[in-house]
Specification:
Layout: H1 2-17, H2 25-32, H3 39-47, H4 51-69, H5 74-80, H6 86-97, H7 101-110, H8 121-125, H9 131-134, H10 139-147, E1 149-153, E2 156-164, H11 171-183, E3 193-197, E4 210-216, E5 231-235, E6 238-247, H12 252-266, E7 269-271, E8 277-280, E9 292-302
Antiparallel strand pairs: 1-6, 2-4, 2-5, 3-4, 3-8, 6-9, 7-9, 8-9
Helix pairs in contact: 1-2, 3-12, 4-7, 10-12
Length: 304
């Protein structure tokens, strides 16, 4: 875990040194030397918050320090802390601290020894949650270690329907794909149904999240005269860690969190820059409790 902690700490230090600049996930992932596809999940697992939430907090904390300890004008403070306008700065500051920047500065003038009670109590509660403090002796971590199996997957040709929007509404894509697959008699166990979450909902707006509902296709299947929503792609093979999931789909995010926060840091692997694959092993609509059976494959590579 120390390696993951050190790499995330490097990102935090980079953020703290560049609060006045625009910071992108691609840039931060490069600093961490993690795959940009998996970076935000790893960062959140280690710190307890998404990269953007951490950036927002650090900018506000720095702004509060300027207000208490410097004579800089409020507008200049907002620019130094990466806010594009004074109005955005004022709104974010009041939401976080419960008072405007001007009110905090005036309060600081009245009492230079301002106490912690003047800070938003959520600031302390929302401090980064470090792995060592929360899951070092976690039974859940040991369970994931026992359940993980390492497998090599081949290249797979798939047909897919892309859904853009809430991951809770991916059934729309599955319905379209299912009708087309039935016409071509693409059924298990001969063919596999695979879901691919292309975006992390923690850092992507819900309506912009992309998801591919896929079915493997046999060699020689004609790709002509297909409906426009049916597309084709090749999924890369390679080394994967396989985990078993059986619960309602809204809890799948917890499995991801456990893998990236517990299993991976203590393993000998890093996440590779390929998509995670969710092999659907049942139809949740046919389960009495609406539970989904999923074999989740996390792309990995041996840690350098």
């Amino acid at each position: 875990m120390n390696d993951y902690q050190e790499r995330v700490n490097q990102v935090c230090a980079h953020i703290d040194a560049h609060l006045d600049q625009k910071l992108s996930l691609d840039q931060l992932a490069e600093v961490s030397h993690f795959s940009k596809y998996h970076f935000s999940r790893i960062f959140a697992s280690v710190t307890g918050r998404t990269p953007f939430a951490y950036i927002a907090q650090q900018r506000l904390v720095q702004a509060a320090t300027y207000l208490r300890e410097s004579p800089l004008p409020v507008l200049e403070i907002s620019l130094r802390c990466g806010f594009e306008s004074a109005s955005n700065f004022n709104a974010a500051f009041k939401k976080y601290y419960g008072q405007t920047p001007t009110e905090m500065r005036e309060q600081a003038r009245q009492d230079r020894n301002i106490s912690q009670s003047f800070r938003n109590p959520d600031e302390v509660a929302a401090a980064p949650i470090r792995y060592d403090q929360t899951v070092k002796h976690s039974l859940l971590r040991r369970v994931w270690q026992m359940q993980a199996t390492i497998e090599e997957l081949p290249l797979m040709e798939v047909a897919y329907v892309r859904h853009v929007g809430s991951y809770l509404e991916t059934y729309r894509a599955w319905a379209k794909l299912g009708m087309w697959a039935a016409e071509h008699r693409l059924f298990p166990p001969g063919q596999s149904y695979i879901g691919i979450s292309l975006d992390d909902p923690a850092v992507t707006e819900e309506e912009e999240c992309r998801y591919d509902a896929c079915v493997t296709v046999p060699e020689g299947l004609s790709q002509t005269d297909t409906p426009p929503e049916i597309q084709f792609q090749t999924l890369p093979g390679g080394l994967y860690a396989k985990f078993y999931f059986f619960d309602t789909t809204d809890k799948l995010a917890l499995l991801y969190q456990s893998i990236f926060g517990n299993w991976l840091p203590d393993s000998e692997y890093d996440p590779d820059d390929r998509y995670c694959l969710e092999f659907s092993m049942n139809d949740p609509a046919q389960d009495p409790e609406g539970k989904a059976k999923v074999d989740l494959y996390i792309p990995i590579k041996t840690r350098a």
